[in-house]
Amino acid sequence: MKKRKQTSEEHTGLRCPQCRAPLPAGASRCTRCNTLLDPDTGQVRHKLTDADMVELADASRRARTKGIVKTVIGILIMLLAFLLAEDKEGGLLYSAGVIVAVIGGGFLCVGLITLKEYKGHIKEQLSRSVVPQVLSEIFDDVEYDAYRHISPEVIHASGAFPFAYDKVSGGDYIKASYRGVGLELCDLMLEEEVRTTSTDSDGNSTSDTKTITVFVGQWLILDFHKELSADLGGF
């Protein structure tokens, strides 16, 4: 009986810093999560080359194709299950339809998850490598976070909005400086929860709560490192 040859992953012991997947020696990218790596140290690499962009696009395209194929297969299997389950007497065809429906549902779920992960990988790579690299060509001391926004405390303390809001969300947070002027920028959405009560002809009251978007836009903070003689607001 031949002994199984030891793989390079087992020999090096390297693992991806992001997903902990085994890595071959000299890997420049994790094949599981697409994280860019330094071939010498195995650590995360934050700058993209032209070759990285081509490789990332190809890997993302393959992941998207797999997700679409699995989703389509799941839908076709579900349609087949529906046809089999038309046996109203609960016979063999009905049982087969139930089994096929479970299999089709599995394919459909895996396909949708794959598509979601594909979009997440693209956004993660752009936010971690491409966007900061581009911004650094113009600004100094760049910080970028695709999932962060300026704190609600800062927004509320400004008193800039003459309307009520209950929820603050956003993303694409940028903090940098340009020719000595500090700036913070993010996409922002403000929402208000409105509670309404209605009474029918019998005198019965029902309450309903809905969320209304009261503002969508960008929030910009500039720090000139000097005192201004007046408050300035722009809309």
Please outline what is shown here:
Helices cover 39% and strands 24% of the residues.
Tag the structure with descriptive keywords.
single chain; 235 residues; alpha+beta; 4-stranded antiparallel β-sheet; 4 strands
Question: Can you tell me about this structure?
Answer:
This protein is α+β, with helices and mostly antiparallel strands and 235 residues long. Helices cover 39% and strands 24% of the residues. It has 4 helices and 4 strands, in the order αααβαβββ. Strands 1-2-3-4 form a 4-stranded antiparallel β-sheet, covered by helices on one side. Strand 2 and strand 3 (181-199) form a beta hairpin. The protein is flat. The termini are far apart.
Proportion of helical residues: 25-40%
Q: Trace the largest sheet across and list its strands.
A: 1-2-3-4
- List the quaternary state of the chains: single chain
Give the overall shape, derived from the CA principal axes. Answer: flat
What is the beta-strand fraction?
15-25%
H/I helix tally: 4
Model regions low in confidence, pLDDT < 50 over at least 5 residues: 1-12
Give the N-terminus to C-terminus distance in angstroms: 77 Å
Question: What is the fold's blueprint, element by element?
Answer:
Blueprint: H1 8-12, H2 50-84, H3 92-135, E1 140-145, H4 152-158, E2 167-178, E3 181-199, E4 205-223
Antiparallel strand pairs: 1-2, 2-3, 3-4
Helix pairs in contact: 2-3
